[in-house]
Design goal:
Elements: E1 6-15, E2 25-31, E3 42-43, E4 46-48, H1 51-55, H2 64-81, E5 87-88, H3 93-104, H4 109-115, E6 119-120, E7 126-131, E8 141-149, E9 164-170, H5 172-181, H6 188-197, H7 203-212, E10 217-218, E11 221-225, E12 228-232, E13 243-245
Parallel strand pairs: 1-8, 7-10
Antiparallel strand pairs: 1-2, 1-4, 2-3, 2-9, 5-6, 7-8, 11-12, 12-13
């Protein structure tokens, strides 16, 4: 029996490249090798949506699940790599470190923000995708992906040393090439996302394209493509590559 999906949120962080006309870089994090779910895989920061995230959503919110997921994406990114986006006024490095430390000690995100008179700025996150694979036998996530920009001078990650074993900024194409060489491990949704991100020359073009396509739940399915059994996704959601042979696809 396929388990019910766990609501989750993922943040695709982008920053400017190192030279004029250089492609934007994406933050990738390596999950701890000992973790039961995707241990050792390179992913984007994120995690499950907690009850506390829902508790921070205003009662009159039009889409409370989306609002809770945005909050979760911001919180998880602070916890995993010590980087904050979507907070106003924008906190300095010391404040972000204090936020992270307080949450590690058990303080709620809401209380930690209130103590510092910070508020969530949801528009800083642009909806990008929603993935809900069905093949996972133990844990299945319904993950909302968001896109956000961070200034290069404020983008040095500090890993938590637990769930996150490493963090690296790289272009989307560099990440795909590293995966092809076997230097990093990425799963099917991450590969499709990187292929889509590799089309963008900068953050504004990424944001514009994200807004041009519908965001609906993507459930990969198996079908034949040119006579080859493949894992597929719909072809009307902005992805340049929509299938991969079953024998090549990494799904967990």
């Amino acid at each position: 029996m396929i388990p019910d999906p766990i609501p989750a949120a993922t943040l695709i962080l982008m920053r400017e490249g190192t030279e004029r006309d250089a492609l934007p870089e994406i933050l990738m994090v390596e999950r701890g090798a000992a973790l039961a779910f995707l241990g050792g895989a390179m992913v984007f920061p994120g995690g499950r949506v907690d009850p506390g995230d829902h508790g921070m959503v205003p009662a009159d919110a039009v889409d409370p699940d989306d609002r809770a997921a945005r909050i979760a994406a911001i919180r998880e990114t602070i916890e995993e790599v010590g980087l904050a986006v979507g907070l106003m006024p924008h906190p300095d490095e010391i404040t972000v470190a204090d936020l992270r430390a307080d949450m590690a000690r058990g303080q709620s995100f809401a209380a930690a923000l209130a103590e510092r008179r910070l508020r969530i700025e949801e528009p800083a996150l642009t909806p990008f995708a929603r993935w809900c694979p069905e093949h996972v036998p133990v844990r299945r996530f319904d993950a909302r992906f968001y896109l956000a920009e961070i200034p290069r001078h404020a983008s040095t990650p500090i890993i938590d040393g637990g769930e996150t074993a490493a963090a690296r900024w790289m272009t989307a194409q560099a990440a795909l090439s590293a995966a092809d060489r076997g230097d990093i491990h990425i799963i099917f949704p991450t590969r499709r996302t990187l292929e889509r991100l590799a089309q963008y020359r900068d953050f504004p073009s990424a944001m514009a394209d994200a807004r041009a396509w519908p965001v609906r739940r993507i459930v990969p399915f198996q079908a034949e493509r040119n006579g080859v059994p493949s894992i597929c996704i719909p072809d009307d959601m902005g992805y340049p590559i929509t299938s991969e042979p079953v024998t090549a696809a990494r799904r967990g």
